[in-house]
Amino acid sequence: MSDHGNNANLFFKGTASGKIELANPFFMMLLSENNSAKYGNHLLKNQQKLFSAHDVNRVINEIIGVKKEFNGLNFLLHELDPLRTCGNALIPPEFCRCYHSQEEIEYFEKHRYDFEERATPPN
């Protein structure tokens, strides 16, 4: 996973492409041969689908054996829904680059505190 791009240039941050780059960091995952044989099929199917930091957190923690409930989906074990939205991936509107229907914006605003509470790690 990379940083959020060119954030030192104040002019670039204000452009449409700058905002997109800042909201969507580059992500790349390399797997060993063993893991590639085990997870490669789902990784290939999910490579052009929407996933979130919650999903990455779940994948990493499950790989290292953490046993707890996570908000995200494990994209190495399951194929992601091609119609997944920022709302059901728990991506806040300010970081979402998808088209938003008024219904989705209202749903997210209504449940915003639920999402933020679930996304906050326990002490």
Describe what this molecule looks like in 3D:
- With 123 residues, the protein is an all-alpha fold.
- The chain has two domains: 1-30, no CATH class; 31-119, no CATH class.
- It is 45% helix and 0% strand.
- The chain is built from five helices and no strands.
- It has helices at residues 10-13, 16-23, 33-46, 53-63, 102-119.
- The chain is globular, with a radius of gyration of 16 Å.
- Residues 119-123 have low confidence and may be disordered.
Task: List its traits.
single chain, 123 residues, mainly alpha, 2 domains, 5 helices, 45% helix, 0% strand
Q: Summed up, what is this model?
A:
The chain has 123 residues and is mostly helical. The chain contains five helices and no strands. The protein has helices at residues 10-13, 16-23, 33-46, 53-63, 102-119.
- CA radius of gyration: 16 Å
Shape: globular
Number of helix segments? 5
Order of helices and strands: HHHHH
Number of strands: 0
Largest sheet: none
Q: How many domains, as an integer? A: 2
Which regions have little confidence, pLDDT < 50, spanning 5+ residues? 119-123
- Category from helices, strands and their pairing: mainly alpha
Instruction: Name the beta content range.
Output: under 5%
Helix content: 40-55%
Let me know the average pLDDT: 76
